[in-house]
Structures are given as structure tokens and as C-alpha cells.
Write a structure and sequence with these properties.
Length: 305
């Protein structure tokens, strides 16, 4: 398999995993959020990733999230699910569950916590590849994983039989562009932080955009058709708005995932709710500041329109 074995492209949001007040997965809210995003122009979704708080999901919960995601997406798009794990055994077990649920692919990051050499990272992905029941989308997010898929490593991994794509979420433009240049002849390259570099990534001819912010503001999905239609000024204006939203979510005592859920709740959107420990829900001034910022943001968007 390679990039020509799949047809994935466009804007595919990384979705939240909503929880009930009893701390169970809220499958109704998960379904509603997926359908809302697909109706807004998403070409698929990525579930049970970092935005989906994969680290908090028990194995049986993760399997159920896979099943709900596949059922909610239906024929309307692509269902890619996270299969994170520290050992190849754990990743392969998650991939087998994903395959049984009917997912199109597994999103696989490097092992986390254990700091690995280049050779160890390559050996890990080789072992996963050799037993993979699904196509693999590599996931580079060194700020969370602690191990980076630098372009030179991706160059080797792109030759593995079951690796067909990468979600490049380093946030480093030079790393993203080098990855695109070195591997896009063999695998599809998706830009992770499209809220900050989505337009330049598209102009560089990436294959798609992945971001958590469409959970809050589906307007970000419009960058993809705008660039395709040559509406560059509108796309750049949208990019500037998205950068403002990014800044709001990670300043003032806020962190990304709790802020995303708090924003969804404030706007009355399905898929929010409280994050799972060790994450904590926003409160006090960080929450109030988020509300003020969202009000200002939405007013500015409405005025610009």
C-alpha cells in the first residue's frame, strides 16, 4: 500500500470524546458531534486521539468509541481512530479492535514516556507494520509523545507496506514542510495544526487538514474549499481568525483540551462536557476569560461576514 491505495483528503477534524456526569462515554453526544461536523463539510473524523483523551479510555471504552465513530460516519466520510500504545503489542491489539469496528485506518504515534533512539522508533513501527490489520496513519506530535517523527525517520517509515499517511502535528513549519517534501511521493501528508498553518500547508499541496478547532468553530473547515476555489484572501482572513482562537485556548491559565470542551458547552454544541482526570474542567477567571474571548471572536466573525 501507499498514498495511491487511499482517497483520503480534505478537512478531517480530531474529535472530542464526551463523557456523561457519571464519567461514562456519552455515545449520543459523540454521534451528534460527528454528524454535525460531516454536515458542515468535514470529509471524515479522527477519533480517540489526543483531542479524544485516548489516555483516559479503558480498552473496552476505546472499542465502543471505535464502533460508534464508524456507525456515525457511515458512508459520509472516513473514520480513522487512534491506536496509541507504548509497546507494539498494545498498538496491534488496538488496531485489531479498530479493524473489527470497521475503521479505515489507525492513527499511530511513537511510543510515549520512554525516550527512544531513531533505531528504536523505526523498530517499533516496523513491528506494528508487520502485524497491522489496517492501513497506518503515522502521528507526529512530539510535544505530547516525547518522541519525534523527524523527516528523516518518516522517510524510512514511508516505505513500510502498511504506512499510507501521516498527521504531522509538530507545529513546526520547517519540520512539516520537510516531511511533505521528503515523503509525499509515497504517503499522504495531513497538516495537524491547520488553525495556525493550514493555508500555507495547502499552498504547499498537503493532502488534508486535521485540527481540534472545528469542534468549536466549523468555519475553520472552509479553508479547504476556499483554497481549492482560489479564494486566497478569504482563506488568509480565516487563518488569522483561527490563530486568534488558538491563542485564546492556550493562554490565561487555559490548556487546549479542557478549553475545547468548555467552549463547546458554552456554545451549546454536542461533544463537550468535562474532561477526564488528570485534566480538570475550567473554572474561575480562565473560564470567564474563555467566555469573553468567544463572545468577541464570534462577534468579529459575524461582522466580517
Amino acid at each position: 500500500m501507499d498514498r495511491n491505495s487511499i482517497t483520503w483528503s480534505g478537512a478531517m477534524p480530531a474529535i472530542t470524546t464526551p463523557f456523561t456526569k457519571g464519567n461514562d462515554v456519552d455515545h449520543d453526544a459523540l454521534t451528534a458531534n460527528i454528524k454535525r461536523l460531516l454536515d458542515a463539510g468535514a470529509t471524515g473524523v479522527l477519533a480517540a486521539g489526543c483531542t479524544g483523551e485516548f489516555w483516559s479510555l479503558r480498552a473496552e471504552e476505546r472499542r465502543e468509541v471505535y464502533q460508534t465513530t464508524r456507525a456515525a460516519v457511515g458512508d459520509a466520510g472516513t473514520a480513522i481512530v487512534g491506536a496509541a500504545g507504548i509497546t507494539p503489542r498494545d498498538v496491534i491489539a488496538a488496531m485489531e479492535d479498530a479493524a473489527k469496528a470497521g475503521a479505515e485506518a489507525a492513527l499511530v504515534m511513537p511510543p510515549f514516556f520512554a525516550h527512544l533512539s531513531r533505531e528504536e522508533i523505526i523498530a517499533h513501527f516496523t513491528a506494528v507494520n508487520d502485524a497491522a490489520p489496517l492501513p497506518i496513519m503515522l502521528y507526529n506530535i512530539p510535544g505530547n509523545a516525547g518522541n519525534a517523527l523527524i523527516p528523516e525517520i518518516v522517510d524510512e517509515l514511508a516505505d513500510l507496506e502498511n504506512v499510507v499517511a501521516i498527521k504531522e502535528s509538530s507545529g513546526d513549519w520547517l519540520n512539516f514542510h520537510r516531511t511533505l517534501s521528503i515523503a509525499s511521493d509515497r504517503i499522504r501528508v495531513f497538516c495537524g495544526p491547520s488553525s495556525t498553518i493550514g493555508v500555507p500547508a495547502m499552498l504547499a499541496q498537503c493532502d488534508g487538514l486535521v485540527d481540534c478547532f472545528p469542534n468549536v468553530w466549523t468555519g475553520l473547515l472552509d479553508i479547504w474549499p476556499m483554497i481549492q476555489a482560489g479564494e486566497f484572501d478569504r482563506a488568509w482572513a480565516l487563518q488569522s481568525r483561527a490563530q486568534e482562537l488558538t491563542d485564546l485556548f492556550v493562554t490565561g491559565g487555559r490548556t487546549l483540551y479542557p478549553a475545547t470542551k468548555a467552549a463547546m458547552d458554552y456554545l451549546g454544541l454536542p461533544g463537550g462536557g468535562v474532561p477526564r482526570a488528570p485534566l480538570q474542567p475550567l473554572s474561575g477567571e480562565p473560564l470567564a476569560g474563555l467566555h469573553r474571548g468567544l463572545d468577541d471572536f464570534l462577534q468579529a466573525v459575524e461582522t466580517a461576514a
